[in-house]
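Exercise: predict the fold of this chain.
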Amino acid sequence: MPCCDGRPDGPCPAGRNDSSVRGSQGDLMLCPNCEKHRFPPNKGNARSAKLSKPLKQVAVEKSEKRLVINELLAYVVYYRDRCSRSPLLKVSSGFFSAAEIANAKKCLLSEFDGHLSNTVFLTERRGSSTRSAPEAELDDIISTLDQVDSANVLSNVTFVAVDLSRMPGYGPEETNICTIVDRQQQIISTVSQLSDTVSQLHSASADAICVTLVEEAMKVSVESSIVLLQNEVKELSNLCTHIAESLKASPVNTSTQVRVKTEVDAGNNTDTSRNVIIFSIDEVTDATDGAVAWRDTVIQPVSTAAGHDVVIEDAFRLGRSATTGRKRPFLARLHSAWDKRIILSGLWKLARKSGFENIYIAPDEPVEIRRQKICDRLVKKATTRGQSVAVDNGILSIDGHAVFSLERGFLRNDG
C-alpha cells in the first residue's frame, strides 16, 4: 500500500498507509485529510474543475485547390485585378487565337458549371458588325470570373500555365502609350547621366597607370550600356508606331482604304494568308474616275460576303495589260486572316445580292499549290478522255508529249 506524503509542515498525523492514499496534485500521494489541508476545497475544487474540463477539439478542414492548365485563363486571372478591362481585352484578343479563346471559355464553364446556371455566359457567341466572336467570348470570360469571384468560389481553382511561349511577355498596362513615353523618358535620362559620367571621366586627368586602366574599363562598360539602351529606345519607338497604326486601322472603322496598283511583280514572294482573288470585275479604261469605279466594285462584294465593312490594305489587277473580252482578276490584301475566313464562309451571300451573281472570290494560294491543282485537273481531264498520262519528276506528259511542269508551268511543244 502507498504511504501518505503528509503535510508541508510535517508527516501525516494519522500515518496513513492504506487504500485511502491516492495520487493528488503535484504527483503527491495523499490521504483525504492531508489533501484537504494542502488544497482547501474552495480553491482546489475550482482548479480541479478547470483541469478536468475537456479541451474543445476543433476540426480544421484543409481546403484542396484544383490545378487547371490553361495559359489564357492564368494570364487573365493574374491581371484581372491589376489593370483595367479595356487593355486586358485588347492584349488577350491580339495575342491568343480564336481557338484558344474558345477552349478557355469551355474550360472555365466546365469548372464552375454549378454556379453559372441560368446565366448568359453559357451562350455560344458569334461575330457581329460591332465586334468579333473571340472578343465577345473574352468579355464573357472576364464577366464569368467576376461572378464566380463574388460567389467566393474562384479561390478553389488555380489556373496555371505550362507553355510559356503562349503567354504574353508583358502586362496589359505596358501597352499604354503614356507608360511607354514615361519609360522612354527614364531611359533618356539614364543615357544623359551616363554621358555626363563619361564626359567627367574624360576630363579628369589620369596620372597613374591604374587610373587609366580603370577609366578605359569604365568607358567600355558605359559604351556597351549605351548601345543596349539605344536598342531598347529604338524598340520602344517601333512599338509606339505600331500601336498608333493599330489604333488608326481599327476593324470597326467604317472608312475602307484601298491602295491601287496597276502591275504586280510576279517574282515577289509574299505572305498569302490574308489575300483573296476577286473574279469578273469589269475593266475600266477611263483614267479620271476608273480607279474610283472599280474600287467601289471591289469593296462592295467583299463587305457583302463578310457582313460588315472590311479594311483592304492593298488591291491590284493580275496581268500587265487588258485583253479584249477578258476580265483580269483582282488580288486584294485584307487587314487580317480572320477577315479572310469570314469572307470565304459568306460567299453564298453574293448569289443573293443583285449585281454580284457573276462575281466570285477565291483564296490566294502559293504558286506551288496552284500548279499542283492545275496538274491534277489536267491528269483528270486526260484520263477521262482515255489518253496516256505520265508524271515524272514533276513533269506531266500526255500521249508522250510534255505539257506541264510543276516548276515552270505550261510547256511549249513545238514538235
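Check your answer against the key: Residues 321 and 336 are 29 Å apart (CA to CA).
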